[in-house]
Design brief:
The chain is of the alpha+beta class. The chain folds into two domains: about 40 residues; about 50 residues, no CATH class. Helix content is about 30%, strand content about 25%. The protein contains two helices and five strands, in the order H-H-E-E-E-E-E. A hairpin with a 5-residue loop joins strand 2 and strand 3. Helix 1 packs antiparallel against helix 2. The protein is globular and about 55 Å long.
């Protein structure tokens, strides 16, 4: 989940509260803000303990390859088996960012 998505969810949550639900609402908003701050402080990397991909699209992942080397690779995440392809012992992952809207000029 990206920082933008977390903040969007926090904004939606802020608009859907009634006074009787305030303590739970406040706790949920604080949790979303904490997750967004963690993403920012980790450069966008998410610890697997903090969450796993919610889709089967490709992601960057940090784990061990078949030779035991720790590497970053583009892998897919299998929702059914809750496993990353290619790598084992994955500890960090991040969504692949979108390409810049403005492409640099070729040299």
């Amino acid at each position: 989940m990206t920082v933008e998505k977390l903040l969007e969810e926090a904004r939606e949550e802020a608009g859907n509260v009634d006074r009787s639900e305030w303590p739970a609402h406040n706790q949920k908003c604080q949790s979303l803000i904490d997750k967004a701050l963690a993403l920012l402080s980790n450069g966008g990397w998410i610890r697997v303990e903090d969450g796993l991909p919610k889709h089967s699209n490709s992601v960057f992942a940090y784990g061990k390859d078949g030779f035991g080397w720790r590497i970053v690779a583009i892998v897919s995440y299998n929702l059914k088996f809750k496993k990353f392809s290619i790598l084992s012992d994955v500890t960090l992952w991040m969504e692949i960012p979108e390409l810049p809207k403005e492409q640099p000029h070729e040299v």
